[in-house]
Amino acid sequence: MKQGLLIVLSGPSGVGKGTVLKELMKDESLKLSYSISMTTRKMREGEVNGENYYFVSREEFEKAVDEGKMLEHAEFVGNYYGTPLDEVVKLRKEGRNVILEIEVQGCKQVQEKVPDVLTIFLVPPSMEELEKRIRGRKTEPEEIIQERLAKAEREMKMMDQYKYVICNDDVKLATDIISVIIKRHVEKMNEAE
Asked: Using CA atoms, how far apart are residues 102 and 100, in angstroms rounded to an integer?
């Protein structure tokens, strides 16, 4: 069985990564598996442990990092976020294409460990639209919104570290483009073997 592809999807908070990912997951032909991240942040209403994230204590997270059990990790707004390594390895061995929805900082760590990773950066049509989306969530206080916007500005400057940059002005179009990119990379990987 051929090993699956590893895909990183990044972009600023509020760009619509989750929405695009949800649409991509509906396409069975992509053979996608979503790697569930681990975090120390509090669970939001409607989230499920082991489905949206693995919610753990700081101590548990730090132990996983110390033991080399994380593919990547980062700290943001006082919380850790990261990707457990074992799950990614297992899914890829099963021939699944594993997609990670992670930060720019995490992507860099993955690129160092997995040189053939497919990297995609999602951008908003404008910073004004991004701010509108973040505020529209109504889930965070003003200081966190400001931190997210400042971080988005920094992240946008790092998009050149990604193989593909896709504008999420239209979810269906962005999803279709990413789907074509994934299929082409799977074909190239199969041709190389």
From this structure: 6
Q: Is residue 1 part of a domain?
A: no
Q: What does the block give as tokens for 70?
A: 């994380």
pLDDT at 76 over 90: no
Characterize the bridge pairing of strands 6-10 and 54-55.
Answer: unpaired
User: Which tokens sit at 80?
Assistant: 């850790």
Could you tell me whether strands 70-76 and 54-55 are parallel, antiparallel, or unpaired per DSSP bridges?
A: unpaired
DSSP of 44-58 = PTT--BTTTBEE--H
22: domain range? 6-192
Give the 3-state secondary structure of residue 168: coil
Token digits for 169?
A: 């002005």
Rounded to two decimals, the pTM is: 0.86
